[in-house]
Design a protein that fits this description.
290 residues, mainly alpha, 2 domains, membrane
């Protein structure tokens, strides 16, 4: 129930900002098409109604069977050390997310088994990087926040980590940390780039302050460039803490203008069929032959 409430909170923010994008004209002239809207609805519905409840159900059944009485067993940790627990939860969850997101974007590993595993991640994550149609006019929109393939929410360990902590009794920690991350991630997908005002400000101290902040937190333009076509699509792999991109993954990219072209190149069947885009099963196309 707590997970559902949290998901609905973030979804409500996405709906409001999506309406703003429509009213302000940020979805016109090919920036967003019917397939984008349909994909956003399908992916969000599947996440809320199927994927996250399924993960929580499996966790509950497995842990209650293997470790009876484990439900709520860490509630004391939250009650006695709330702020340290909150900080540790947030940092660990974000590190796990960034690591596996990077794995989906990095160069192909030499190990054959890892190649197949990575191919499955790439196939599942590919829909998140599709914007607009084949005319390359598509831009990033807030409704893209939850868009991924059918398996993404099932194979990303950070989502399992979130729900595991919820099951173990870290209810308030889960709600606050995940709400902040969800809302922050949604705001970096909105078709706005307010951080560019500060990056290009006429006062040097404002530009330098923004540059420093972009090493700590992920701002919209950073994530927009992650959705760009080109080398930056493998950069800025964290959702909130850019300090991991900077000091751990080496993937930080700070730009002072919007991307020129958004989204990966689409195949015609992907551009014309939401079902083929979302329910892709053929992982072989992402694995080298031989």
């Amino acid at each position: 129930m707590d997970d559902q409430k949290l998901t609905m909170l973030v979804t409500a923010f996405i709906i409001l900002t999506a309406l703003w994008e429509v009213v302000s004209g940020r979805t016109r002239e090919g920036r967003k098409n019917k397939q984008d809207w349909r994909m956003a609805f399908l992916a969000t519905f599947m996440m809320v109604a199927v994927q996250r409840p399924l993960v929580l159900l499996v966790l509950t059944l497995v842990l209650s069977t293997l470790i009876p009485g484990s439900a709520g067993s860490l509630a004391w940790l939250e009650q006695s050390y709330f702020w340290p627990t909150l900080i540790v939860f947030f940092c660990v969850e974000e590190f796990i997310h960034g690591s596996f997101h990077l794995f989906a974007h990095r160069r192909r590993p030499n190990n054959r088994i890892l190649q197949w595993v990575q191919a499955f991640y790439k196939m599942s994550h590919r829909p998140h990087h599709m914007s607009g149609g084949l005319d390359n006019k598509g831009q990033l929109s807030v409704t893209q926040t939850f868009v991924n393939g059918w398996a993404w929410w099932l194979i990303m360990p950070n989502y399992t980590f979130q729900l595991l902590c919820l099951y173990l009794g870290l209810v308030d920690v889960f709600l606050i940390a995940t709400a902040f991350k969800g809302l922050w991630a949604a705001h970096t997908h909105v078709n706005w780039n307010y951080d560019l005002y500060f990056h290009n400000h006429r006062w040097a101290w404002v530009r330098k302050t923004m540059w420093a902040l972009a090493h700590i937190l992920v701002f919209p333009t950073q994530h927009h460039h992650h959705h760009a076509r080109g080398p930056n699509s493998a950069k800025n792999v964290t959702s909130t803490l850019a300090i991991y991109d900077w000091l751990v993954f080496g993937t930080l990219a700070i730009e002072t203008s919007k991307p020129k072209v958004y989204g990966w190149r689409q195949k015609e069947q992907e551009a014309n069929s939401v079902l083929k885009r979302y329910f892709c099963w053929d992982v072989r196309q992402y694995v080298p032959k031989g």
